[in-house]
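User: Predict the structure for this protein chain, please.
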Amino acid sequence: MKTSIFIMIGFALTILSTLSTTHASNTPTLEALKAADYMQGKQGFQSRCSACHTLADSSGDIAGPNLWAVFTRIAGSKTGFTYSDTLRDADFQWSPARLDAWLADPKGYLPGNIMGIPEAVPETVRLNILSFLMIETGAVDWPRPEINFSDAQTDTSKHPSERFPSFWNHLMFNTTHYRWENEAAGEDFRFDAYFKTDGTVVTSEKRVTGFWHITEKNFFCYALTGMPVSVGHMVECFPVAAMAIPRFADELWISKPQPGVKLHGGMIAGRPDWVYGENKP
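Assistant: Here is the predicted structure, written as structure tokens:
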């Protein structure tokens, strides 16, 4: 049963003050969170967080744990999800102040954590994301704004390059770097993938090829076959918005396409000339 409105209002006030001594100088106030931009928060979450986390009560874990009711639980405690030792030993309850501090310093706040945030999130972006999270994870009863979604992204008659120009330019003209890690099977396979505008995927390994597709719900799904690992292939999907902000590093995220497998992913600027030619080395 969902928390009542009266308890939720009190809870919203409590979670903002619980850890006021942590990150106190920049802790977002209740007024600031209520006045934050919902759509900017949604876009910020989609581009920075949605590849690893879901929000709805009925949704499951992916690379990261589902965040429904996150502000009611102790860090590293969600049943059924395997956390790093750092999170299991953290021994604190999540609050907007805690999460704000972590997003402001992803590596320094809890040294040793493996959450795949490649860079500090700007303060304004954090505020909007936190407000959006509080609404979407059941922490508060603030109403969602009525949004008109009749924009270019919903017009499926348009080519993906028109609907998602930032995503398209980032993924179709740069290099996606992968490391497949399966400790139990002794597999550690590194390769580069090149998603092409014609819907195919070529890689730095001659035998590994694939294809991609964007679903009606704006998820980018791709399949690879010919991989020199025990299962021989993989299929994975992620929200288009998760790749909308160009970032470059050898490792930007970690996903779990198969049981027991960690797929480390990153982006490298540019790609070899042969990708759109015929002379693959």
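Strands lie at 175-182, 187-195, 200-203, 209-214, 219-225, 233-239, 249-255, 262-268.
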